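Components:
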Amino acid sequence: MNLFKNTFLPAGQLPLTNIEYFPIFLLLLVSIGLAFIILGASYFFSVQKPDLEKNSVYECGFDPYEDSRNVFDIRFYIIAIIFVVFDLEAMFLFPWAISLPYAGSMGFWSMSDFLLELVVGYLYVWKVGALNWS
Amino acid sequence: MSFLSFFLNDFKFFLPEIFLATSILSLTLYCSLVAPSRDLGYPILVKSLNKLCLLVLFITFLLVSNESNCFQIAYQNTFIFDSLSTSSKQIILFFTFACLFVCERSILENKINNFEYLLLILCAVLGLMLLISSYDLISLYLCIELQSLCLYALAASKKDSSLSTEAGLKYFILGSFSSGLLLFGLSLIYGCTGSTSFGALFLLMSSVDNPSLNLILEVLTKALFFISLAFFFKVAAAPLHMWSPDVYEGSPLSSTVFFAVVPKIALFSVFLRFFTVMGSNFSSFTLGLFLFFSLFSAVVGSFGALKQKKLKRLLAYSSISHVGYMLLAMAACSFEGNQALFLYLIIYMVASITIWSCALSLDSINSKSRFKTIADFSKLSSLNPLLALTAMLSFFSLAGVPPLAGFLAKLYIFHAALCSSIVIASIFSILTSVVSSFYYIRLIKNVYFEPPRVLSSLGYSHLGVESLPVPVTKECSILLGLGFFSLILIFFYPTPLFLLSQKMALCLC
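Structure:
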């Protein structure tokens, strides 16, 4: 934090740069500025020839503004749910891998147990045919 | 710090849960390998799986009984094992065993052919067992989620029925809302105290009497308010009861039996532990809150049931009014109150499993007419006199008529409430129980004194008989007999139950 220390402020007043979240504030400023620069550059410098296909919303091949009471294949939901489960598992694995030296054998075997149960779930999903797309 | 030596004792106490979890995993493996196999002709495993589940529950019961009379706080203050938790686990395992035992035919007849159904019941039992043992806010929340997720799926398990899907969705949305409230309250507690362990909270709460901490006490009161709301929702106390009649009615009967009988005792024992831990700083606040919900539930349960035509909805409202009496005992916040609460819970479970077994035997396809409404009960006495007698006895017990167990339970509740000088509320509850006995007696009138509907008008004229016998399965009859005799026996010899509930309540002192 010494890098940002403001020496021109009178003593006793908390300098702005000493606030705990100041780097996050900087990050916020930079990211907002960068977003404006990129979007603005592509808006001003590009050649725009809009047509129907280009103007349509990009949403995984579906029109997002339809009647909500539509027939919709349930397999999308099943795949999404399974994806979320395995995604969360990956999210657990990263911090576990970093802190494994501190967690010791208890941590190792707990995660092994977790993965084993996950594999059983995966096998179940596989065998009942939730992954079949036909 | 060696892994094995550190957790050796904890594993020993955790053995029943570990066994149950391992058997759920292996049953899942077995079923997912066998059920979709073309070589075996896509076998329907429900019947054999039901037997396996009964075996698993029985062995878990033995394992739990093996470690009774211990006291241990394990897994870094996350789980507690004392006689309250072991007794509640035994009761839960026993009644789940009974539910699965009587529900087998109903599951088969309703064509719930997915093997997941029974595994979900086992998962719910695992969640309930962990819930009873939890001694930490995080484990409390996670276990509540584990069991309620299973219950949502059980409610929606009849996939081709729109009522069942609706029940599951309703239960899920409202249940997740209440879980949000619970989580909010828990986070407030963590924010104020910096601890999630019950033990640490107990020490903190017993030393907070400094007037400079008034602000924190105020925030904690709000937290308790939210947590109690979630608790009242989960046990379906009015005015947070709206989900329960719809869920009871929409779910398949076998799930309804499970919802109605099993989960309440786990919720009551863990939240009783929680409120005991939070201690006397909030006693005036919790007294008011509990009395309000208790009286409201008693009134809604008694007056709401008067209009109900369907048996499932009627029993849902009756369970709401019973929750009202249980909350009265909880409001008493004394040793006698806790003891009366556990006694009431056990007797209520016995009476309700008896009633639900009656409903199960009446719902069967073999009895040619499905008993859905109260009017269908007419002249059950001539169709199946023994079944009618059992139904009458258990309805009288729920109403609290003297020579039966229900009277004893109500007596202890009101005695405990009066000991804690809750006079007006007790008198009010007694008056509402008079109202609620009206609809029990109306059911009994239907059973015994109503002229039967003419069978020919129902399309049974070709059978050429005046009335059809109602067959009862072997499983149902065993349970009905047990319920019948225990409802009478408990009144004349309540000592074992009394000792059991005393042992459970002593853990909360």
